[in-house]
Amino acid sequence: MSLVKVDVGGGVARLLLDSPANRNALSTQLRTELYTALRDAIAEDGVRSIVLSHTGTVFCSGADLKEARGGPAALRTATVPQILIDIWRSPKPVIAVLAGVARAGGLGLVAACDVVIASSSVTFACTEVHLGVVPAVISAVMRPRMTSAAIHQLYLTGLPVSAQWAQQAGLVDVVVEPERLDDELRRYTEAFNLAAPQALAATKRLSRSNDAIAALQTELAQLEKLSARHFASEEGREGLAAFAEKRRPRWAPSG
Hints:
It comes from Mycolicibacter sinensis (strain JDM601) (Mycobacterium sinense). The protein is α/β, with parallel strands linked by helices. It contains eleven helices and ten strands. Strand 1 and strand 2 form a beta hairpin. Helix 1 runs parallel beside helix 3 and helix 4 packs parallel to helix 5. The longest helix is centred in the C-terminal third of the chain and has 23 residues.
């Protein structure tokens, strides 16, 4: 069963994360399907913008922690850095639309997009430190978007923040009431349909040039190694075990 539903029409490619059973976690299958869907949408001449959305109450919860306990992903599997790079360098604008919460690696998907529209009820959190790991890979795309003080707080505390807080911090562009999400999305897709495709792509390259993309790729390769080290560390193994067993990790004081 597909975990990423694709619908193309009216100049828009809609990519829907559809794995609510595991909170749209970035499993091997979901990553692979999302990577392919992004590439197909970018290559499709009739597509002027790409929408990344979801089913269920969670936009994306980040890494699939059940898979992570099983060890490194198989070779040739689409990685989170590859997906972030493709969103970053897509000549077509990518719009994230969130009706549900985002956690950990899900914030990386959000930050890589060109436009982020969130329901006023949505919350965001980088919970990695509570699991004994670090928000390494996603930091490469979150830092250019957010104020340094805000990202510092978000990473260190692991506490959830509101959509309004995220907008002030730079992570979210537009916050609307839940019933207005579709209308606000339509406002952006219609604007992109009116834009000349080559001019739009060239305009995006003003802030995401080839040099910037090359620098991002280099940084992501280094951060991916850092992330892997912490997932394999003693703290990382204990954090994942505690999560799976629904208990407090050993490092957390009791009481």
